[in-house]
Each structure stands twice: as C-alpha cells, then as structure tokens.
Amino acid sequence: MGKTRIHRVGDLQLQILKILWERGEGTVADVMESLIGSELAYTTVATMLRKMEARHLVTHRAEGRSFVYRPKVKAQDVSHRMANHLVDRLFEGSLLDAVNHLLTTREVSGDELAKIEQLIAEKRKLK
After folding, report:
1. Residues 6+ away with beta carbon under 8 Å from 116
2. CA 97, CA 50: separation in Å to the nearest integer?
3. Which stretch of 17-26, 30-39, 62-71 has the lowest confidence by average pLDDT?
C-alpha cells in the first residue's frame, strides 16, 4: 500500500470506498446504485473515482467499455489514519482528551464500557 497519505478522505470518497470494500470491485454504475439517496450525476462519480485513483485509493481494470474499480487501500488503514489525524488535530494528540470527549458526549452502554475496560486491562498487561 505504500506511504500514501490517505487520512484526508472526504465524505463521498469514504462512501465510495465503503461500497468497494463491501463489493470487492465495481463499475461507476455499480457505485451509483449503492449510493443510497444520492442524486449525483454519473460523471460526478466517474470523476471522483478518477481523482481517487490519482491519489492511489483505488485502481481499475478495463472490462469492455467500462472500468471496474477496486480499492487499493484497506479499510483498517484508512480508519487508523483518519482516527489518528482526528486525535492529533482536534485534541492536540491527547488520547485522554479524545476518550474523555467521547465518553461525555455520547451514550455509552454498559457492554461497551465493559469492553473498553477489557481493552485497557489488556493494554496494561503489555506494558
């Protein structure tokens, strides 16, 4: 995958990537069909896929007169880089501030808290 900076993925790009991760690959028409509630033009989606290819987010192969696109980046790599960028940018790198913000501004179930505590306990064992 290389060292391509992919953390600045826009909303539409992320939607397209999610579709391609789920499908494995798809044409512009396939992507458009999966963009639920979207009224984007075919040319808009085609242009976005070309831009994403220039950024090494997707790649394509020709199949007849259509291009079939597939993701070139893994979902976990994108989420990892986006999350790190968020913590760095909004919370000046403070994981404590980021977690505190999430715990105080979101509804957290008892099950989620138990899983978070388990993750912390596992992390402590590694130290």
Report:
1. 108
2. 38
3. 30-39
Distance CA 100, CA 60 (A): 42
Please give the average per-residue pLDDT across 50-65, as a whole number: 96
Instruction: Give the pLDDT of residue 37.
Output: 81
- Give 94's contacts (C-beta < 8 A, 6+ positions apart): 87
- For the chain, the maximum distance between any two Cα atoms, rounded to a whole number of angstroms, is 56
Q: Would you state the torsion angle of the CA atoms of residues 42, 48, 75, 123, taken in this order, to the nearest 10 degrees?
A: -140
Q: Mean pLDDT over all residues of the chain?
A: 92
